Amino acid sequence: MPESSQIDYDGLIPNNVGLAQDLRVRKALETWHPGYIDWWKSMGPEGFQNAPVYLRTAVGVGSEGWAKFGFVKMPEYRWGILLAPAVEGRTIPFGAHKGEPAWQEVPGEYRAMLRRLLVIQGDTEPASVEQQRHLAATAPSLYDMRNLFQVNVEEGRHLWAMVYLLQKYFGRDGREEADDLLRRRSGDQDTPRMLGAFNEQTPDWLSFFMFTFFTDRDGKMQLSALAQSGFDPLSRTCRFMLTEEAHHMFVGETGVTRVIQRTAEAMKEAGIDDPYDIERIRSLGAIDLPTIQKKANLHFSLTLDLFGNEISTNAANSFNAGLKGRYREDKLEDDHQLTSSVYPVLRPRDGKIIREDVPALSALNMRLRDDYVEDAANGVVRWNRVLERAGISFRVNLPHVAFNRHIGEFSTIQTDTEGNILSSDDWHARRKSMLPSTEDNLFISSLMRTSRQPGTYAGWIAPPRHGIDNMPGDFEYVHIEN
Ligand SMILES: [Fe+2]
Ligand SMILES: [Fe+2]
To answer: Which residues have C-beta within 8 Å of that of residue 145, sequence separation ≥ 6?
Structure first.
């Protein structure tokens, strides 16, 4: 077994899994490679494929110095790491097989379940690249354009990581699944991506920041749960993906913070105290806070749907099987089997939303969603600090979890953002005040003009506090030939 800390950059497929010695898998990946490049060229970032971009490439697996920065053309991005190092003597941390040695091969009885988990996770990676493919043209700065591309190449790498697992451990059906990952398309009528939020559009940069804040954070939760897996190769893959996911959420969190900051500054400069003086604020070329709130409402609710049904036998089965754990399972103190415990679930009953204890095993999706909401709320606190400091009374809030839901317990009702149940008429009457309207979206898209002079920023967003890799403010992150 080759050391996973050694990265082979010589072959067609850069890797740290000893592909040079693994003829079968190497051939399978080399066969898949041209399709990936075709997909990247037709569905990856539009334009800029020949522009050198200041990108981070993973070069090691340790927490220190795992990445290096340099100018790379995106189609030549070389990713290298497919697995984090093995943990000596690791055992299955939860479920019916708790305490047994972690699986190094696919456990036969759970093969189908495991493959499905891989495919669902894998499908989200290329999907988000497809959703974001038109954004570079309207990047508010070269700094932001570079961050978009960084996220995109890393999602491409995540796809490689999942495809490696499919090709290595699932033989022929793994190959078919890997091909299908390149065949589905975000938003396509006939062959859509598997999950709803990954078929929505990301039409503007505020949507992109909201997406990386809310939806990449779902990725963090799912990867954290899969990083606990008793199937050791999956655990090792997800552990390494998480190191990159942190940057994606950084892009979202700081992106929205900078939008809010610019709005607060514009309001101050113009002497506007009332955050609902929307027309005047918009006339300054800034995005009013109520519209930012509506965007947050939309992306939060779409992302909650990704957690699936609150009560789910699939979730119970994959936990029992030892394939998908809870968020930070290794930090939790209980029996890690949950055979006799309960967990509270919110659900509508007789015109009200009630809390009801159900068997903890069947409520694992609900639990992961609760952990997600808490994590997202911490980020929102940081957005609001900008408003506090500026002396503006408005606060961005996460809407109630029942708001605008299409999957699970709340899909049969409509509520306002506080969770009060609405009649269908009330919902339609109030929808525009809670979710972005056509006019809101038109206004935002009217602001989406690019700024490509190094160190300059579009008027609706503040510059970042620090450069990437501590580069100076006027650093040229993307070399665009004219
Ligand atoms: Fe990802
Ligand atoms: Fe991501």
So the answer is: 48, 136, 139, 452, 477, 478
d(CA 68, ligand 1 centre) in Å: 19
Which helix (H) or strand (E) is 362 found in, with range?
A: none
CA distance 356 to 413: 18
Note the Cα 374 to chain centre separation in Å.
16
pLDDT tens for residues 152-194?
999 999 999 999 999 999 999 999 999 999 999 999 999 999 9
Nearest to 336 by CA among 88, 86, 92: 92
344: which strand partners? 357
Please report which confidence band the pLDDT of residue 5 belongs to, taking 50, 70 and 90 as the band edges: low
Average pLDDT over the chain, rounded to whole?
95
Cβ atoms within 10 Å, residue 424: 9
Lowest mean pLDDT across 69-83, 196-210, 232-246, 250-264: 69-83
Q: Which ligand is nearest to the CA of 132?
A: 2
In angstroms, what CA-CA distances link 424 with 108, 405, 428?
Answer: 48, 14, 6
pLDDT at 399 over 80: yes
The pair phi, psi for residue 95, each rounded to 5°, is 85, -170
154: CA distance to ligand 1 center in Å? 7
End-to-end CA distance of the chain: 48
Q: How far is the CA of 129 from the centre of ligand 1 (A)?
A: 10
**Region for 142 from its dihedrals, namely left if φ exceeds 0, alpha if ψ lies in -120 to 50, beta otherwise:** alpha
421-422/414-415 β-pairing: antiparallel
Q: Give the model's pLDDT for residue 169.
A: 96
C-alpha 199 – ligand 2 centre gap (Å): 16
- Distant-in-sequence, close-in-space partners of 25: CB < 8 Å, separation ≥ 6: 19, 164, 167, 168
Average of pLDDT values for 408-432? 97
Is the distance from CB of 291 to CB of 434 less than 8 angstroms?
Answer: no
Question: Quick one: pLDDT band at residue 3, thresholds 50, 70, 90?
Answer: very low
**To 10 degrees, the CA torsion angle through 243, 146, 264, 379?**
-10
Whole-number pLDDT of residue 142: 98
